[in-house]
Amino acid sequence: MPKEPDQREFIQSLERGLAVILAFSDHHPSLTLSRCAELTGLSRPTVRRVLLTLQQLGYVRSEGRSFALTPRVLALGYAYLSSLNLPVIAQPWMEELVAETREACSLSTLDDTDIVYVTRVATHRRPSVALATGTRLPAHATAMGHVLLADLPKTELDHYLARAELAPLTARTVRTPEELLHRLDAARAQGWAMIEQELEEGLRSVAAPVRGADGRVIAALGMSASVASADEETMRERFAPMLVRAAAEISERLGADFSPCRHPERSAGDETMTIREDS
């Protein structure tokens, strides 16, 4: 008969720490000690020690008598993405997009207030900004950032807004939380996002969400083009639908039941979804 697992090798404190993290959800974005103890079945003193440890490590923040997760927990999800080898899964679709559009295609995740490039398929053109795996860009000024931020629970989005410095990289960059929230509402409703010369003058970008098995957005698939090589109509009517389809197929490979609630070609003409080009 197979031997029972050696309990001496079992780290109970790690089990308790993970149980506390997993107690938070969209239904329970903020928890008191008592509520967390109730959900996990752990004692109040144990939950308190775990939460204070997580707070010191930066994974949890206090909100009066309650606690909430911080965006740092996304680093744990990034480890999962790495184990899935997401870049390898996405590579065929990214290469196909580049071949069809002759524009570079990138995949990124959210880390604190930045997006981080997971992988990129470039063209033969020399980009004005060097972008490679590990490159960080401010989420508020990128289409991929808008897609990733749009899926955050309210508490996490509020925390992002409290921490993010909405620096005006160009005259068109989003500068206020209110304007950014408006843009995120649009991205959430239409299932994709576009920015117009907000990260860099002369560059426009479009992005779509990649979802995991639980339906949450785990990455963003994006494309950028110079204003000389692709006009706004091309980005909206051609590139956006292509990205949404590719992102959906990648999502399905990851186990997601992904079906955009709105087709980008339909929402492209919706005036409420138009990204403003003024400053």
From TrEMBL:
<dbReference type="InterPro" id="IPR005471">
    <property type="entry name" value="Tscrpt_reg_IclR_N"/>
</dbReference>
<keyword id="KW-0805">Transcription regulation</keyword>
<dbReference type="InterPro" id="IPR029016">
    <property type="entry name" value="GAF-like_dom_sf"/>
</dbReference>
<dbReference type="Pfam" id="PF01614">
    <property type="entry name" value="IclR_C"/>
</dbReference>
<keyword id="KW-0238">DNA-binding</keyword>
<keyword id="KW-0804">Transcription</keyword>
<dbReference type="InterPro" id="IPR050707">
    <property type="entry name" value="HTH_MetabolicPath_Reg"/>
</dbReference>
<dbReference type="InterPro" id="IPR014757">
    <property type="entry name" value="Tscrpt_reg_IclR_C"/>
</dbReference>
<feature type="domain" description="HTH iclR-type">
    <location>
        <begin position="11"/>
        <end position="71"/>
    </location>
</feature>
<protein>
    <submittedName>
        <fullName>IclR family transcriptional regulator C-terminal domain-containing protein</fullName>
    </submittedName>
</protein>
<feature type="domain" description="IclR-ED">
    <location>
        <begin position="72"/>
        <end position="256"/>
    </location>
</feature>
<dbReference type="InterPro" id="IPR036390">
    <property type="entry name" value="WH_DNA-bd_sf"/>
</dbReference>
<dbReference type="InterPro" id="IPR012794">
    <property type="entry name" value="PcaR_PcaU"/>
</dbReference>
<feature type="region of interest" description="Disordered">
    <location>
        <begin position="257"/>
        <end position="279"/>
    </location>
</feature>
<dbReference type="Pfam" id="PF09339">
    <property type="entry name" value="HTH_IclR"/>
</dbReference>
<dbReference type="InterPro" id="IPR036388">
    <property type="entry name" value="WH-like_DNA-bd_sf"/>
</dbReference>
